[in-house]
Amino acid sequence: MTVALLSVRLHTDQDVVVARRWTRMIAGHLGVPGQDQTRLATAVSELSRNAVQYAGGGQVDVQVQPAQRLLLITVSDHGPGIAALDDILAGRHVSSTGMGLGLAGARRMSDTFDVDSRPGHTVIRLGKRLPAATPVTPPDLDRVIRAVAAAQPVSPLQELRVQNRELLDALAALGHREEQLAALNQELENTNRGVVALYGELEEQAAQLREANRVQAMFLSYMSHEFRTPLSSILGLTRLLVERQDGDLSSEQERQVQLVQRSAGELLTMVDDLLDQARLRAGRSEPHLDDFEVAGMFAGLRALFQPLVSAPQVRLVFGPVAGLPTLHGDEARTTRILRNFISNALKFTAAGEVNVWAIVDGRSEWITLGVTDTGTGITAGDQARLFQDFSQVGPPGAGRGSGSGLGLSLARQFAEQLGGHVQVSSAVGEGSCFTVTLPVHVRRPGAPAGPGPDAAAPLAGPRVLLVDDTPGDRERLRALLAPWRAQTVEAASGAEGLTLVAEAAPALVLLDLSMPGMDGLAFLDALRAQPRGGSVPVLVVTAQVITPDLGARLKALDAAVLSKAQVFAGNPDALTRAVSARLGTPTSEAP
Asked: Which residues form the Response regulatory domain (predicted)?
């Protein structure tokens, strides 16, 4: 619906003045702000003047569209039409008389604008949106009409004075905005000068930090070398005493010498850590690549750590190495990584087992070396900072541990330098599993690298649920599933596994039988009782002896069985065949 408020016929310049005045008055009564009143009145004045000058006359109609809350003003004439209309509206038309400037200006000063022009007929509609607080009911619009009709006519001179006043107000507002713009420009200039000065300070500080790092690396390297000489002498002398090359020792003297020897050895390890850290920071640490066997590396680690296992309730176990490929990499650094893992595992395992193991992926391109323990475990918060420089984490509730705090940080840096990565999975009270995944054939720095175990391609393979209470076994199973790019979801108990079955909808479940609380059989019974659980493939991977009765029950529950000894014996073919039968052949893009 449209409500007509006013019409003005245009014949002379006096009519143009009247149209301008009525437009401004109506806009004011409808709550349009002052400057917008002036803009709208000026636009109507320009269009009305064009109608009188170029078409010999016309008409102005002022209306309101209540539904759209729009003040609509129509200027129409029956002249020759507007030539080059598109160029005028686009700002491309140039006229010595200024023709077209009024039309383009009116378009800028209105909220809506529409032109219909052809020979003998031109209609220009421009609209101004009304404020939200303005009432536009029929009684309100009637009051506007009466107020405009009751207004006293004014002379052209009076209207000219009003226009001059509006012009002065506009010039004052423009001057104020220019002052604001000048102030903003000055502020921006000051800010730019401050930014330039700040960049200079930052560059200076960066140079100072680089120099400080260089000096620190030199100091650490120098002091490490200086410490190594006397420590090596101390260790050599204590070895002579322990071997009794200069005479017998009493039992107390032997104990004291061994204590000195152990302390000197720990201090030498800290010095070695500092020296390695200094070399890495200085960029002077390059890997020494050569072929080596996992069996020989494990033998050296066993000889080093077995004498240090003094508690009879702790067992240090090295897993099978048969079938593992020859590695091409840095044996010293790989050994150093495992040495850190084993040392920490023995330190925080009061009873149980520390298991050192190795497993290769299905294509023998990547090897995962791991150390699993049954120790105190590590909180999630501590796991996040384990591999940071000088970070020391002890058992929950304990204070700061001994050592330099660089061992795991160096392990991470060594692994990354060799093209691999380290990981940890742990739960408080259940133990921890530290792993390092490395290429079977390490490439020299700068050589093109193959896709890694965490290559850019996302893990878009099938979702597999691992239900096992041993973190290390879950880690090994995850490594074996790498060729399928499996999205693994892990549960440490049968109850947790049932929850994840409903949430994750796995394509396969790898299940351990011996778990606290809900064991594997109870999990299977509950799974098969679920509406969707009857069709989920389940592969039992267990260390438990499978009796005929147990085998029959598992078969009835539609679960295949593999022994952990078979799966983790260094030859994963059995698991590969079983998983392939359920998930298909691994993709060639898998790591």
From this structure: 463-579
Q: Look at residues 509, 567, 515 and name the one whose alpha carbon lies nearest to residue 539.
A: 509
Handedness of CA 329, 365, 339, 417 (dihedral sign): positive
Amino acid at position 431, single letter: G
Tally DSSP H helices, then E strands, for the chain. Answer: 17, 17
Residue-range definition of the domain harbouring residue 9:
3-153
Domain edge (last residue) among 421, 456, 491? 456
Query: Tokens for 527?
Result: 């799974």
The CATH number covering residue 582 comes to 3.40.50.2300
Identity at 472, one-letter amino acid code: G
Q: Can you tell me whether residue 544 is helix, strand or coil?
A: coil
Give the span between the Cα atoms of 159 and 18, in whole angstroms. Answer: 9
Does residue 147 lie in a domain region? yes
Contact in structure between 555 and 344 (CB atoms under 8 Å): no
Running DSSP on this structure, what letter comes out for residue 428? T
Is the separation of the CB atoms in 33 and 65 below 8 Å? no
Low-confidence residues in the chain, pLDDT < 70: 93-102, 152-164, 166-171, 216-217, 220-228, 274-275, 277-278, 281-284, 362, 389-405, 444-460, 569-572, 587-591
Amino acid sitting at position 551: G
Compute the distance between CA of residue 331 and CA of residue 475 in angstroms, rounded to an integer.
23
Which residues, 6+ apart, have CB-to-CB distance to 232 below 8 Å? 268
Distance CA 247, CA 366 (A): 52
| Tens-place pLDDT, residues 425-484 | 888 888 888 999 999 998 766 555 455 554 434 456 788 999 998 877 888 888 888 778
- For 306-344, the three-class secondary structure string (H helix, E strand, C coil) is HHHCCCCCEEEEECCCCCCCCEEECHHHHHHHHHHHHHH
Count how many domains the chain has.
4
pLDDT digits (tens, 9 = 90+) for 201-212: 888 888 888 887
